[in-house]
Design goal:
The protein has a single domain, classed as HUPs (Rossmann fold). The protein is 44% helix and 9% strand. The protein contains 9 helices and 5 strands. α1 packs across α7.
């Protein structure tokens, strides 16, 4: 039996990993990571330190593109309603990886105690795969998650100083407030996003263009 941990490297998947290594045989655990090549460098530092702390290497299985290459190749600008970048760079690689496992396996996902709908959705979409959601099932609070990470002595990703997540910058799922933070703290990436909105003639957000955020 293999235990595949969806290891995004955010605090939720990382705390879930810290829990599971105490409960499962280390030899059975796979820390599965899909690189979108669009994350800040400190996210990689955090993932590496968690991996070293628990003594299990990261297994990377990636598409190889970043979000901008996906938008170009698909001739489509991802957005919160249709996050094509997430599908191409995370979901599809994950499904391909599962097919390579020559054993029974369980996939653990770090959805929190309020993400029931996300859990239901992925189970309905892929009924042949056995998913478990330890944080959700055990109703673990965000305070407990943050405290648990800090107890290791590992510094949280710098993204958490400004965002509630540690994903891509930018992320097609972002709302207006997060896009304003991208403009302030990651101006080069905001500029590139502006260029892509102009290139495709569409916005990342419903009824709002990035160039208009300052006036709102």
């Amino acid at each position: 039996m293999k235990n595949v941990i969806a290891f995004s490297g955010g605090i939720q998947s990382s705390y879930m990993t810290l829990m599971l290594v105490k409960e499962l045989p280390k030899s059975s655990i796979i820390l599965l990571f899909h690189d979108t090549k669009t994350e800040p460098s400190d996210n990689y530092r955090f993932r590496r330190e968690i991996s070293e702390y628990i003594g299990i290497p990261i297994t990377e299985f990636s598409d190889g593109r970043d979000i901008w290459q996906v938008f170009d190749d698909e001739n489509f600008l991802g957005n919160n309603r249709i996050p094509i970048c997430s599908m191409k760079l995370k979901v599809i690689p994950a499904q391909k990886f599962y097919k390579k496992i020559n054993d029974d396996f369980v996939v653990y996902i770090g959805y929190n105690m309020y993400e029931h709908r996300r859990a239901q959705k992925i189970c309905a979409r892929y009924p042949k795969i056995k998913y478990k959601f330890p944080l959700l099932e055990r109703k673990i609070s965000m305070c407990e998650i943050i405290s648990g990470i800090k107890s290791t002595g590992i510094t949280l990703p710098k993204m958490y100083k400004h965002f509630k997540h540690a994903n891509c910058v930018p992320c097609a799922r972002m709302g207006k407030s997060d896009w304003r933070k991208v403009k302030k703290f990651y101006p080069d990436r905001f500029k590139k996003a502006l260029e892509y909105e102009k290139k495709f003639g569409h916005s990342f957000m419903k009824n709002t263009y990035l160039k208009d955020l300052d006036s709102m």
